[in-house]
């Protein structure tokens, strides 16, 4: 067996990309984050600490696919009271709907290392189409001999389309929590033997 990085990479459309195979999200090198508007004047950031994903890199790269699962109860905004509210039936209802799910439906190449990942996101039992803007960050081999690649992705969703409609009107106009939620993902994926 060769130890050359060339054996697990290939050139495609001017990029060095991973060889075909199955990769999983590295739990130690990932962030599944989000940004929401608060009181119409500021932003609150948070993340889900527990998420898994399997990425299948196809021989034809644009036939690749992703399946991801996020544990709803792992939401973390660094404020215990807010996190408890977000886990409650008024928002994610983590007890009844313990996971958020994503399944890709297609990949499109934009330019250079930029791609669009079409898919379906399921939150609180409601499934809607989403379009992730993906940036391929590169491919390499870790000091531990693992073949990896890095990526980042983002999208914006309307939380109310997923049944997350809780809000409070403000005396000064507007609402406590914005409808639009920006999703920000960074990660490394590790090739499976």
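-> sequence recovered:
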């Amino acid at each position: 067996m060769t130890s050359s990085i060339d054996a697990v990479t290939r050139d495609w459309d001017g990029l060095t990309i991973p060889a075909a195979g199955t990769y999983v999200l590295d739990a130690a090198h990932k962030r599944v984050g989000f940004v929401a508007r608060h009181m119409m004047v500021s932003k609150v950031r948070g993340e889900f600490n527990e998420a898994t994903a399997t990425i299948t890199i196809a021989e034809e790269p644009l036939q690749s696919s992703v399946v991801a699962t996020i544990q709803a109860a792992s939401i973390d905004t660094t404020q215990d009271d807010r996190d408890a509210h977000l886990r409650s039936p008024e928002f994610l209802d983590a007890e009844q709907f313990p996971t958020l799910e994503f399944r890709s439906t297609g990949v499109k190449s934009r330019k250079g290392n930029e791609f669009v990942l079409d898919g379906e996101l399921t939150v609180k039992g409601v499934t809607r189409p989403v379009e992730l803007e993906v940036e391929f960050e590169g491919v390499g081999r870790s000091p531990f001999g693992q073949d990896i690649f890095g990526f980042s992705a983002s999208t914006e969703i309307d939380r109310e389309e997923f049944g997350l409609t809780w809000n409070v009107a403000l005396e000064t106009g507007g609402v406590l929590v914005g409808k639009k939620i920006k999703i920000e993902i960074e990660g490394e994926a590790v090739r499976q033997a």
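The first strand starts at residue 9 and ends at 12.
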